[in-house]
Specification:
Elements (H helix, E strand, L loop, with lengths): L1 H9 L4 H7 L2 H22 L5 H11 L1 E9 L2 E12 L2 E9 L3 E6 L2 H22 L14
Antiparallel strand pairs: 1-2, 2-3, 3-4
């Protein structure tokens, strides 16, 4: 969460001036925190899931889907489907929950990892800055 707070500061309206003020030490500290956060998302994404069951479902019906309610009436939908990319087999990952994240991955293992990263990132963004469909961080719509 420290990386998110620092990122929030960098993305403030004065971000251009702020970015110019960053020293190399501050940049390295931010980079280290960001990497730690992303590595944590990746590790959580790789927690035991049945890769073989997902692979089997994709082989059988061409895709695997999961819907998770992680907050009252808040659902994340994940879909991994077999696709062709430049003549090679690949897997399209689509994660949605008021925003959408999509990636093309070369293996099922990588697709599952990115699906977990995307789902975790969307939840962290919600708890940190709110939904992208809101008018502002603290306001759903204009009054």
């Amino acid at each position: 969460m420290h990386a998110i707070r620092l990122l929030r500061g960098l993305l403030s309206p004065a971000s251009k001036e702020r970015a110019e003020e960053l020293t190399m030490t501050q940049y390295r500290a931010f980079k280290d925190l960001a990497l730690e956060y992303l590595e944590g998302l990746s590790a959580r994404a790789q927690e035991p899931r049945s890769i073989e069951a997902i692979r089997h479902t994709i082989a059988k019906q061409g895709y695997w889907e999961e819907t998770v309610e992680w907050r009252i009436s808040t659902i994340t939908s994940t879909r991994i489907e077999a696709v062709q990319q430049e003549g090679n087999a690949a897997f399209r990952v689509h994660v949605s929950c008021d925003s959408e994240m999509i990636a093309i991955c070369p293996t099922v293992e990588r697709a599952v990892e990115f699906a977990g990263i995307f789902a975790g990132l969307q939840q962290d963004l919600f708890w940190t800055v709110g939904w992208p469909s809101w008018e502002a961080r603290d306001r759903l719509k204009s009054e």
